[in-house]
């Protein structure tokens, strides 16, 4: 009887083994195999579920956790794994390393509405605020909502100085900024209030039209009036502070600065003047301002790989390039990569947008690309310090052969080859790789 039972178990086990999908043989060339073996020896394996990462899983962050600013990237604007990883990393930085601010690639003004709920610990308000105030579909997701709700719960019962902050540092809309400044100045009996109402009203309307009717001369005159309003607020600062506070004045002067930033981003974009990357320049400046406003508190930044990277080109550069010049060794970057799976993005058919949808990438990464080599490790997820890889001659030489990597923004045309570019190991300090991405879940 026991023998018959044993045979049945043995036969069943063999059947299961025979039906189990085996990984395809890679048959790598010796050079690539060496790169893979080095990568496997230096990586820090991670589970596929970032929200399940323990503090021990994230010990590799400790060498950069004392930096003033750590920027967290993403290879798409719609991958759940990237979003959950950044949530988990921020939580680790808050709980173990004293980080207080999460600065998003999101509108400065909209973030103030959401941050008010975060400060008060009102998690029940987050969903409605995200739906009504957020501009970008990219952040209107269940993953971001869960993170914001955690921030609310963290702040409950804490003194104001111990609370964490959700802030935006992007400058693409004047939906809220002009009205915020007008409301702040209202009722303070300031002699320049009619002038403020006039220029701020004009800023809101003309921002919506991207300053299409402006000449260089009229735009310069318009910006001069915004500067005059800022000067007037500085002259009457004592009167303004008497009915608010010095900290409030600092904030609303910055919001007025955002009015100018948005105006310049929109005007120079529609006039096709690209000699300066105004948006990235101002996102960097806003990040530095946040550090000063919150009196040197450490900041985590949430933005696309392309923004956080230390990339200089021509007379301009990325946000990360500006921050690197300004902060030096106090700025650290963690980029994100993946090889296959799904993600949320706006589709394209030719030159026509086809709407927001779940996109699928089911082809193998380009041969000899960084994504391909990472996929050969057969690890579902891991982190790697790029400086350690460069210490190996094999990887140093591979990087210098113009190795490519894959990433997209908010739009995907279903032609993967269009989204490869040359990888520079100095773009990021660390990379987090997920072999498979799943699409972010948009709020209904």
Tell me the layout of helices and strands.
Elements: H1 2-19, H2 30-42, E1 44-45, E2 69-72, H3 80-97, E3 101-107, H4 108-120, H5 126-133, H6 142-155, E4 165-170, H7 177-185, H8 193-208, H9 216-235, H10 237-242, H11 246-270, H12 278-293, E5 299-302, H13 305-308, E6 312-313, E7 316-317, H14 319-327, E8 331-349, E9 352-361, H15 370-375, E10 381-385, H16 386-390, H17 393-399, E11 404-406, E12 411-412, E13 420-422, E14 430-437
Parallel strand pairs: 2-5, 2-8, 3-4, 3-5, 8-12, 8-14
Antiparallel strand pairs: 1-10, 6-7, 8-9, 10-14, 11-13
Helix pairs in contact: 4-5, 4-6, 7-8, 7-11, 8-9, 8-11, 9-11, 11-12, 12-14
Structural key phrases:
444 residues; two-stranded antiparallel sheet; disordered N terminus; alpha/beta; EreA/ChaN-like  fold; 10-stranded mixed beta sheet; 14 strands; 2 domains
Structure, explained:
- The chain is of the alpha/beta class.
- The protein has two domains: 30-99 and 298-437, EreA/ChaN-like  fold, CATH 3.40.1660.10; 177-277, no CATH class.
- Helices cover 47% and strands 17% of the residues.
- The protein is built from 17 helices and 14 strands.
- It has helices at residues 2-19, 30-42, 80-97, 108-120, 126-133, 142-155, 177-185, 193-208, 216-235, 237-242, 246-270, 278-293, 305-308, 319-327, 370-375, 386-390, 393-399, and strands at 44-45, 69-72, 101-107, 165-170, 299-302, 312-313, 316-317, 331-349, 352-361, 381-385, 404-406, 411-412, 420-422, 430-437.
- The strands form three sheets. Strands 1, 2, 3, 4, 5, 8, 9, 10, 12 and 14 form a ten-stranded mixed sheet that branches. The protein has a two-stranded antiparallel ribbon with strand order 6-7. Strands 11-13 form a two-stranded antiparallel ribbon.
- β8 (331-349) and β9 (352-361) form a beta hairpin.
- α7 runs antiparallel to α8 (193-208), α7 (177-185) runs antiparallel to α11 and α9 packs antiparallel against α11.
- It is globular, with a radius of gyration of 25 Å.
- The model is unreliable at 1-23 (pLDDT under 50).
